[in-house]
Write a structure and sequence with these properties.
By secondary structure, the protein is mostly helical. Helix 1 packs antiparallel against helix 2 and helix 4 runs antiparallel to helix 9. It starts with 9 loop residues before the first helix and ends in an 8-residue tail after the last helix.
């Protein structure tokens, strides 16, 4: 697979980047404006979202995809939207299917590792595993995640389908580092309206939640990109993002003592225990070359018969 966008004129690519970010950010702020105007604040990690919050969040999550489609069709004019944004089930199909399974199990493992780290650090009060209801809880959590997938396509068609490939360009080391850094920062700061309302870090001031989200996104973005690179499709990245934002969050509540206070900064994927676990995985991926598009092109070229096992 390739992330090259050399066929897009430089002036169009630059204009497209600015328009994409402008539309994605304006869409987020517009969607969140009813909540911001009402003074909504999330003060407890166990607090359920209401109908208005769900509508606003859903609308916001579609903004990056709409921005990407707008740019691809009317600014870059770079071909079919599905192909340009990797909205496909790439061949060999088995490789993409395995990447989708990894998108379930890798975030689950990272979340479990974060909870173990937080427990040993004395910041997470583990309530035990309730085996009798664990199966039904897991099925319910996964079904809920699958139902929310269209919304996460709304985000990842923008970040992994459009922004990262445009910034990575030819795939040299400097371009890739820039692409990971800028995409991760843009991904994090796009959440600013929700951070101001305590969305990811309930009860925390903005000067704590914003840096925390930047660190979280800079670390988790390479994991989503790895899933996208090894499959040639944006679908596994969508599944991974959906898991982190739904099932992973639910795991923190499910396995905690029911009377304990939950602080995501100290016990979740968006907290320092999650940073340790995710950082270790990202370090492994980087050291083994798996965060570079050339890794998969070279492997496919040298072992075409077994390329579906990458």
């Amino acid at each position: 697979m390739t992330l090259s966008t050399k066929h897009v004129p430089l002036v169009n690519r630059r204009r497209g980047l600015f328009i994409f970010l402008g539309v994605a950010y304006l869409g987020m702020w517009a969607a969140m404006s009813p909540l911001l105007a009402s003074g909504y604040q999330r003060g407890d990690a166990r607090e359920e979202t209401g109908a208005l919050q769900e509508v606003c969040i859903s609308a916001a999550m579609l903004a990056p995809a709409l921005a990407a489609i707008l740019v691809v069709r009317w600014v870059e004019r770079s071909g079919r939207v599905r192909d340009t944004l990797a909205l496909r089930w790439s061949k060999p199909w088995g490789r993409t299917a395995r990447a989708c399974l990894l998108a379930f199990f890798v975030p689950a493992g990272l979340t479990a590792a974060a909870l173990v780290i937080s427990t040993f650090a004395g910041r997470y009060q583990f309530g035990g595993v309730h085996w009798n209801g664990l199966g039904s809880w897991a099925i319910s959590a996964v079904l809920g995640m699958l139902l929310s997938l269209p919304l996460f396509f709304g985000e990842e068609l923008g970040w992994q389908g459009y922004l990262f490939p445009r910034l990575a360009q030819g795939g040299d080391r400097r371009s890739l580092i820039r692409a990971y850094a800028i995409t991760g920062a843009a991904f994090a700061l796009w959440h600013l309206p929700t951070l101001l309302m305590g969305g990811q870090y309930p009860g925390r001031p903005w000067y704590v939640s914003v840096p925390g989200m930047v660190v979280s996104c800079l670390l988790i973005l390479p994991v989503f990109t790895w899933l996208r690179l090894r499959s040639g499709s944006v679908v596994p990245a969508v599944i991974g993002h959906a898991f982190v934002s739904s099932v992973s969050v639910a795991m923190v509540t499910e396995f905690a003592d029911s009377k304990s206070t939950l602080d995501p900064l100290h016990m979740s994927m968006v907290g320092w225990p999650g940073w340790i676990a995710t950082g270790a995985l990202v370090a492994f991926l980087a050291l083994t070359g798996r965060l570079q598009p050339s890794f998969y092109r070279d492997r496919a070229a040298s072992h075409p018969a077994s390329s579906d096992k990458l």
